[in-house]
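Supplementary notes for students who missed Thursday's class. We covered one full example, reproduced here. Read the sequence, then the structure, then the short commentary at the end.
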Amino acid sequence: MPCLAITGANSFIGRHLTKAALARRWSVRALSRNTNWLRSLTPHDNLSIQQWDLTHSRDPQIFAGVDVVCHLAADLPPDYDDPSYAQACLLNNALATQQLLETTRQSEGIHFIYYSSGNSYARQDRMVHEADPLFPSRHAVYYLASKLVGEMFCEHYRLVHSQQTTTLRLSSVYGPGQVTGVLLKFVQRLSAGCSIQLYDGGQQTVDLVFVEDVIQATWRVIERSASGIYNIGSGQSHSLLEVAQII
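Structure (token representation):
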């Protein structure tokens, strides 16, 4: 039975990926700092749960017998514009990813899938593609820069050390169980009968991708042993004003 290790298994995407893997009869090694939700799935013969955080990236025993690692764990700063969180972002998102790559490289044959952000692209007047420049200088620069460095490490290990790595640049993910994001804020405020304040008239655009589409993309990558960098989005742009009106 193939084994999938998921870091950040208790996260929004991690929960959906855990359930999808179990439904496909994979063995799942769920690694998470908070394991409360995961333990609600037990007893399950194919699920093992381990309390884990990004400081444990050097422990090779955790990944013994694993075929695929989906690295979802990340340090999300409480304030994306506060420079005091820059060091923690680089330490936990970039350097911990490099340590994780080095650890999993010691076990030959592990496919390493890294989840990054499509918001790292420089602003374009068209749909971006994977070869477009990355320059996240406008918003959340400390977090996005740390995710981008993690991408660079993944590509380095793929090109120099021949490790099988895949980077998925996700657009704005939404769906059941979402705990953050503009879509959730809109729903919460409108459900409470409150108004929504839109900066610059809501002209900012966003590519909203459903969480189950992210899961399907992950399984395509696993099944086809695809390496490299891929954008994962809906391919459609909507203004925040449009989103608010639809809700």
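Commentary. The chain has a mean pLDDT of 93. The first strand starts at residue 3 and ends at 7. If anything here is unclear, bring it to office hours.
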